[in-house]
Amino acid sequence: MTRNGETVKWINARRRHPLAGYAVVVLALALLGGVYSVVAPDNADRAQAQAQSADADIYEDVDISNGKQIFTQSCASCHGMGGEGTENGPSLVGVGAASVDFQVSTGRMPSMDPDVQMPRKEPVYDREETADLAAYISEEFGGGPAIPLDAPGSEPERAEFEDGAAGDEAYEEALETYEAEYEAYVSGGDIDAGQTLYLTNCAQCHSWSGTGGALTDGHYAPPIGEATPRQLYEAMLTGPGAMPVFDETTVTPEEKQDIITHVEELQMEADAGGIFNLNRIGQAAEGFIAWTIGIGLIIAAAVWITAKQRAHD
Amino acid sequence: MTENPQAPNSGPDPAANEASGTGGERVIGTPTGGTAGPTGMTADAPQESTPSSAHEGPYPPEETHLRTEEEQRRGERIAALWFVIAFLAGVGFIVSYFLFPPGPDGPAVGDPSTGQIANIAMGGTLTVALFAIGAGMTVWVRRVIPHYEVASPYDELPSDEQEKSSFGEFFMRGANESGFTRRPLMRRTLFAAMLPLGVAPIVLLRDTGPLPGDILKQTMWEDGMHMVVEGTSRRIRAEDLATPGGMITALPENPEDPEHPVSLNDQSKTVIILIKMRPDDFDSEMTEEQLGWTHNGIIAYSKICTHVGCPAALYEPTTHRILCPCHQSTFDAANAAKVVFGPAHRPLPILPIRVDDEGYLVAAGDFSSPVGPTFWDAERDNYLAERED
Amino acid sequence: MSTQPPKALASAGNYLDDRFHLAKTGEKNLRKVFPNHWSFMLGEIALYSFIILIITGVFLSIWFKPSMQEVIYDGAYTRLQGVEMSEAYASTLYIMFEVRGGNLIRQIHHWAALIFVGALVAHMLRVFFTGSFRKPRELNWLIGVLIFIVAILEGLFGYSLPDDMPSGMGVRILQGVLLSLPVIGPHLSFFLFGGEFPGEDIISRLYLLHILVLPGILLALITAHIFILWHQKHTQYPGPRRTEKQVVGSPMYPAFAVKGGAFFFFTFAVIAGMSAIIQVNPIHLFGPFTPTSITSGLQPDWYMGFMEGSLRIFPDWFDFQVAGYAIPTGVLIPALVIPGILFTGLAVWPFLEQWITGDKRHHNVADRPRNAPVRTGLGVAGIVFYGVLWAAGANDVIAETFSISLYHTTYFFRVTLILGPILGFIITKRICLGLQRRDRETLEHGYESGVIQQLPGGRFIEVHQPSSAETVDTLRAKDEPVPAPDDTTDDQGIPNPKRSGLRGRLWLALNHWYTKDNVPVSHVEPGAHHHADHGAAGTNSGREGPRHR
User: Fold this and answer.
1) Which residues of C touch B152 (CB under 8 A)?
2) Are B38 and C24 in contact (CB under 8 A)?
3) Which residues of C94-130 are buried (b: 16+ CB within 10 A; e: fewer)?
4) Does residue C549 carry a pLDDT above 60?
5) How confident is the model at residue B45 (pLDDT cuts 50, 70, 90)?
6) Residue contact B138–C297, C-beta within 8 A
7) pLDDT per residue over C463-483, tens digit each?
8) Within 10 A of B84 (CB to CB), how many other CB atoms are there?
9) Secondary structure, 3-state, C60-79
């Protein structure tokens, strides 16, 4: 009680200080910053997400036995040795290489908890291992769409190359090739057609800005901002999880490229209205900010204007 | 201006500052005016120049807590500083407007990243200018203008009885003499005369739109009409929807101009989602007739929710649910879009489909029931048909 | 020093006075007193944001074209070049990307709208909880409720004008609600839209409503609101010299005019600051409206959120047909009946409360919320009710953020919508009564000084200091509820006709409910127990010792 009383007294004494009004405003601004840091997007993450690589030779030169080994170690316990599926995991018969590449390269598989929807995370296997696994599963259990190699996949990583200067050089070169390919692909589509297709077939789940949305039973459509063009392509092709399939015949490869172009361009576009884009969530976030920051700051000003003054209590 | 302690600070507010030394804010000397009221004291009331110790403010001294001269001087400087900042920021606003002139490729702000900078530059300078004016005025009112605690009486709102009865009497005398109360024929015909004119503005609104008639119950879909992918206007074959779990939004092909989509009015009624399922996924509750509207596991539902009309397009192949993202009405795609959750009441209408000779998907007629939000007679025809059976 | 106005000013003043006889009224009005408390400035936020809305709205209407003519966009915003869109959407893009400062003005307009309605709510809550709506201010409260309703419609129509994807969906939902009206629904919809949805007329008609009809009504209502306020003067919080007969505060001239001016600039600065750095309603990213596309996470602006939530959680269980004609209660009740109850409740409350309490006196001193526990409890219940509907309007965002099943959020909100307000009422009322008890203690004993003293007997006490005059005045100003007189029967045992029958008994019950819980202070002598308490040490009246002394 006494201690609290003293704190209150301390505040009371200073509340009437001539600078108190400014302090209130500064505090409110600090609050603005604090709230923003919670809701703000991580721009660095997003920029980095765009950079990935398409490198066909990895897929030409696969090591199926390595794929089999990975399958036995990491997949068979849930999907069954013969890929026939168990109660913990669906059958892999006929899923195809694109599906495997999507699940593994987005880090969703191998999953530690088959009961919940896996979020996107760092992949467990590198590009070569993923290619080996995909080749094994598609060869062993058959069927399914192949990996769409035209769409750029993950960016090359330094670890994939030898150590030393030669490795550095090879890495730099691979990265450059990748970036050129990526540029060419994501600027190659027709944005208008892509936007229409996206808004009529994708936005209902992933939202206009690609931030995702709720589905039934606690599932959700994930945010797609970090996906590589290849992963976007594979998702449309194979319909992972609760997502419908968009066959090559209903949405042609060119049209898929249009959609990917629209998605990537939208992600990259600067926010014309200001540096804080409220995560592009939309009106729910705007209302929250209007009440907390807007009305909060204005009331802080009212408190300053009407605050009692030291000499005149 | 405030070097001279007797100089007025603002308007007729000359503060007698000597008396307000370190602690004594209340100036003694002027007669107590009691509670301030509209006493008829106009600007020229205190005629003679009073001695410096006298209170010359507009309100009684005990309700006026003057600032010390030192505080006023400090206040003036701070306020002036704010106003200078505001002036500079205001100039900055105009400058930043001209910083973004149109270039050869069009307006500089046409590029979102330049637009962002322009927005921050103009908005930022404007904000600083406005804030600084507000801050300067606040400093003025808190440091220079005295702190007032002026009392002012609330008006006695009800008039006294005499005034009231006088008014009542006056009013009725007038009404009687005018004949309004005594000449009912005139009064009533006047009211009657007003009536049609009062209704006239509402009648004029009649031509704001046509009568609904049966328009809401029909769409342009008819037997043999091709369906095209929305966004590309490409016809769809049945085998295009190859994989179970597949889905696509489709529209009727524009009969006049196959390259372009149909009008927005028609889009809002005809838009469908084509869903491909394994034929054995269909629920056993579905009738033969309903199954007859499908083709090889492909079923076409109206995309417009029967609740309030949002596109209900969120299809989950794993559960066969179609969810409307607006209000979460959920329909079972495997069971003729029966409502399984949420506020919608009617199932989504089904568009009967078949393939033509070339293998293209075409409609086999209009929707099974009226499209879109449920309206007054949406189910009336259905009801009459059932009664006849 | 001269108190004569300068010559130029005097002659201008004389010029006006010769024509309008202004000296006396002018002085009276410049002497108008404003109570000095921040919560009395909430309404001003609304007033100032309304002014900002008018200024920015005029600028926007210079370039905006309210037409649904389909055009191919070829403006400066490259991403949408070649896209087919309405002229309304294209001209909004023109404002954003070809008018320098256009996007800033648009964002100021949007933020100001969000803050305008927010300030209306905040102001209304202040007036409600302090009982400032009581006689003689009931009619001004009614005008305020009307302003609130018109402001919401004004916002909804403005949100719809750019014809972007979410705004078009807002119009679609409006049309769906219209259609659901029995008998006249389809007709109303056809008349409003000039035919089928979306037609080619709706934007220009909403534009007419948004820039002419509704602002005109708002302007008239706001003017009336301020004139009535000016005439009746502000309420004030209790305190020294502040009585039902006189108001104490800053006079308009010269102090409050400057304060109000400063506050206008602060309000504008905050809104401009937000518009400079926080992107709002980025319609260029949404894409143009088509009736066939939709986004997840679709939300209206916040003030429509409660209606959106109401539409989301109300089930279809009560839909029925009469001879094949549909009565879609799943739309009618959430979209019309629930908001109707909310607004009607707001509108009639002053009259209902007056009927229940039988209090016909004039009130100029505001209640402290704790001193009207039932009203405060009902207010909190109302806030909870509104808040649950509002949160339910974002249930998909909640479900996604916390990975909860979407349907479970719906069930949760359905239950909370009923239980929440009841709990809110009970808890609030208890807190109010607790605070009343503490007030009485403070009045009796003064405040705890924080100084610990050891008595000669070795016991420690906390010394109580007499409360300041201001505190005593504030506490004594409590307006005690008057319970109904015991007049159900007269001396001879004849039942009082006014207290029997359904109306009489309902009145008795409500009056009892409203007045029964009260911690009276009128008999308490300030500081009366002060000395007694400290003289007679011991476990006085069983209160916990350490806390109290």
Assistant:
1) 31-33, 233, 246-248, 251
2) yes
3) bbbbbbbbbbbbbbbbbbbbbbbbbbbbbbbbbbbbb
4) no
5) very low
6) no
7) 888 888 888 888 888 888 877
8) 12
9) HHHHCCCCCCEEECCCCCHH
How many CB atoms sit inside 10 A of residue A139's CB?
A: 13
The CA–CA distances, whole Å, from C528 to C460, C463, C473, C537 equal 22, 15, 15, 16
The b-or-e profile of A58-80 (16+ CB within 10 A means b, else e) is: bbeebeeebbbebbeebbbebbb
Residues β-bridged to residue B355:
B361
Chains that touch C (3 or more CB pairs under 8 A): A, B
Q: Exposed, middle or buried: residue B107 (CB in 10 Å: 0-12, 13-18, 19+)?
A: buried
CA dist B354 and B236 (Å) reads 12
pLDDT for C372 equals: 93
Residue B40 has pLDDT above 80, yes or no: no
Q: Both ends of chain A: CA-CA distance in Å?
A: 25
According to DSSP H, which parts of A149-228 are helical?
164-186, 191-201, 203-206
Could you tell me where the beta strands, DSSP code E, fall in C281-420? Answer: 320-322, 325-327
Closest to C535 (Cα-Cα) out of C458, C436, C455: C455
Kindly identify which residue of chain C lies nearest to residue A305, measuring between CA atoms.
C259
- The pLDDT of A289-293, averaged and rounded, is 95
Contact partners, residue C253, CB within 8 Å, separation at least 6? B11, B58, C30, C31
Task: State the DSSP string of B34-64.
Answer: -S----S--TT-S-S---TTS--SSS-GGGE
Is B344 in contact with B212 (CB distance < 8 Å)?
no
Per-residue CA distances from B178 to B172, B175, B182, B184 (Å): 10, 5, 8, 12
Cβ of residue C47 closer than 8 Å to a chain A Cβ? no
**SS3 state at C24:** helix
Q: What is the ipTM of this complex?
A: 0.90
- Residue B282 pLDDT more than 80? yes
Instruction: Specify the 3-state DSSP secondary structure of C465.
Output: strand
Q: Which residues have a Cβ under 8 Å from the Cβ of B180 and sit 6 or more positions away?
A: B186, B187
CA distances in angstroms from A313 to A15, A101, A309, B59, C235, listed in the order given: 12, 73, 6, 19, 20
- In this complex, is the C-beta atom of C277 within 8 Å of any C-beta atom belonging to chain A? yes
DSSP strand E in chain B: where?
Answer: 64-65, 147-148, 150-153, 227-229, 247-252, 272-276, 298-302, 314-316, 321-323, 330-332, 338-341, 350-351, 353-355, 361-363
Look-up of token digits 């191919």: C72
The residues facing C464 across adjacent strands are C448
Rg (C-alpha) for chain B, rounded Å, is 40
- Map tokens 């005109």 to a residue: C216
B249 vs A200, A255, A275: nearest CB: A200
Max distance between CA atoms of chain B, in angstroms, equals 110
Let me know: does C82 contact C71? Beta carbons within 8 Å: no
**In angstroms, rounded to a whole number, what is the distance separating the alpha carbons of residues C381 and C426?**
9
Of residues C176, C205, C259, nearest to B373 (C-beta): C176
Chains A, B: CB pairs < 8 Å: 119
Q: Do B375 and C75 touch (CB under 8 A)?
A: no
B51, pLDDT greater than 70: no
Cβ(B288)–Cβ(B245) below 8 Å: no
| Helix (H), strand (E), coil (C) string for A221-253 | ECCCCCCCHHHHHHHHHHCCCCCCECCCCCCCH
Do B373 and C318 form a contact (C-beta atoms < 8 A)? no
Tell me if the bond preceding B31 is cis, omega within 30° of 0: no
Single out the residue of B290, B249, B294 nearest to residue B273, CA to CA: B249
Instruction: Record the tokens describing residue C419, joined without a space.
Output: 């239980």
Residue A203's closest CA among A223, A188, A228? A223
Whole-angstrom distance, CA of residue C32 vs CA of residue C204: 43
